[in-house]
Amino acid sequence: GQAGGAGTSGFIIVEEFYATAPTEQVFTASGTWTKPTGCRSVRVRLLGAGGGGGGAVATTSCCGDVPGSGGIGGYAGYSEKWVDVTGISSVTVTIGPGGTAGTSGPGNGGTGGTTSFGVHAQATGGVGGALGNATEGPNGAGGTASLGTLNVDGNKAGSITNSPIAAGSPGTYAMGYTGVVTASGTAGAAGVLLGAPGMGGFSNTPALGRAGAAGTSGVIIVEEFY
User: Fold this and answer.
1) What share of the chain is helix, strand, coil (3-state, %, to 5)?
2) pLDDT, tens digit, for every residue of 107-149?
3) pLDDT in tens, 84-100
4) Contacts of 72 (CB under 8 A, 6+ apart)
5) What is the DSSP track for 50-101?
6) Which long-range contacts (CB under 8 A, 24 or more apart) does 1-10 make?
7) 219 - beta bridge partners?
8) Contact partners, residue 211, CB within 8 Å, separation at least 6
9) Which residues lie below 8 Å from residue 101, measured CB to CB, with a gap of 6+?
10) DSSP summary character for residue 131
11) What is the helix (H) or strand (E) element at residue 44, kind and residue range?
12) Contact, 40 vs 226, CB < 8 A?
């Protein structure tokens, strides 16, 4: 017989509130976070970038072929951390670019880039979906997260999900759902909001392959406490 696997332990997050309301900076492009005067600690939440959707090769005849469908890109990883910045004046911010769209053939989707807040928290992007060639290409694996107090690996594409960042402010920067292919014989639809993967293309036309869609870039939200 074979033994089962052990479950993982629980955890507790304690949020400490201050007399002065926190300020916030949102980064959708790489740059530098500069500490505001009087800031003592920050809560950092970040997402890697979504993987790109795979393309689909054109079918070879009009009848009887199995349609080609590119794989969906993987979801990005998510990391969150409280950082004491009393001895820190600035931090380098890196925002991962979205994974590239797979072409109509040959074209796997690109892997999304890594988002990081200096050495304090990091999340990689989702893996690109594979090319579909008269079959369905495999979906991309999710990205990983590390260094943070809370690290959540991204889901493999194919299960619709939201990131923990979705409940935070500003909600418009939440990791969104993948796009949806509304009909066969179409290109993949782009991910919605940041950190989301692109859909794969879906070809059922003899003469035409279909491209996948690019994933969307990562994001960092920095809440500043005084």
Assistant:
1) 5, 25, 70
2) 899 999 999 999 999 999 999 988 877 777 788 888 999 999 9
3) 999 999 999 999 999 99
4) 51, 53, 54, 129, 139, 140, 157, 158, 178, 188, 197, 198, 199, 200
5) PPPPP-BPPPSSSSSPPPEEPPPPPPPPEEEEEEE-TT-SEEEEE-PPPPPP
6) none
7) 47
8) 55, 101, 102, 103, 104, 107, 187, 188, 201
9) 52, 53, 55, 107, 109, 110, 188, 198, 211, 212, 213, 214
10) P
11) strand 41-47
12) yes
C-alpha 168/C-alpha 189 separation (Å) is 26
Tokens found for residue 158 = 């194919």
Q: Which tokens hold the place of 37?
A: 């005067």
Distance of alpha carbon 67 from alpha carbon 204, whole angstroms: 5
Tokens of 163: 């990131």
204, 45 Cβ separation under 8 angstroms: no
Structure-token pair, residue 205: 């036309």
CB 198 within 8 Å of CB 128: no
